[in-house]
Amino acid sequence: MEPNHFIYNSRKLLDKKLLGYTKAVSMDFLERDISKNNLTSTQLFELAEKMNKKLIDMIYINIPDMDLIDVSQSYSEDDIATMIINNPDILRTPIVYLEDEIFIADDIMDINKIEELAH
After folding, report:
1. Cα distances (angstroms) measured from residue 51 to each of 21, 59, 95, 102
2. Which of 5, 7, 50, 61 could form a disulfide with 95 if both were Cys (CB 3.0 to 4.6 A apart)?
3. Type and span of the H or E element at 95
4. Which pLDDT does position 38 carry in this prediction?
5. How far apart are CA 45 and CA 40, in angstroms?
């Protein structure tokens, strides 16, 4: 996956708000809505590597009404990639993937970081 992507989930309100903000500050990127066009396992591993994270660190563990992840169990990275592919809502989004920086912007305060990158 090439840089300059805004990876988001249109089923999440915060993602839609941050997408609107990034458009307002004229950031140039490709949008990828994982609720309609999910990432592949290769792309997930690539993003995790670029962020120096394990896939387990890129998912929401405590999701109401989802018994998907039993925290008492141990999962391989391949297991977690499969879970994300089958249930994209568990992936922490949006992911801002720029030429020299990549981060999960899952807090409204990340607007400040996005604004800094836009200028």
Report:
1. 23, 13, 10, 6
2. 7
3. strand 95-97
4. 95
5. 9
Pairing relationship of beta strands 5-8 and 95-97 according to DSSP bridges: antiparallel
Q: Is 89 exposed, middle or buried (0-12, 13-18, 19+ CB in 10 A)?
A: middle
Q: Label each residue of 2-63 as H, E or C.
A: CCCEEEECCCCHHHHHHHHHHHHCCCCCEEEECCCCCCCHHHHHHHHHHCCCCHHHHECCCC
Three-state secondary structure call for residue 104: strand
Whole-number Å distance between alpha carbons of 82 and 97: 22
User: Is the peptide bond between 94 and the residue preceding it cis, with omega within 30 degrees of 0?
Assistant: yes
Query: Pairing between strand 30-33 and 5-8?
Result: parallel
Whole-model pTM: value is: 0.84
Q: pLDDT: is 33 or 21 the higher one?
A: 33
CA 11 distance to own-chain centroid: 13
Helix, strand, or coil (residue 83): helix
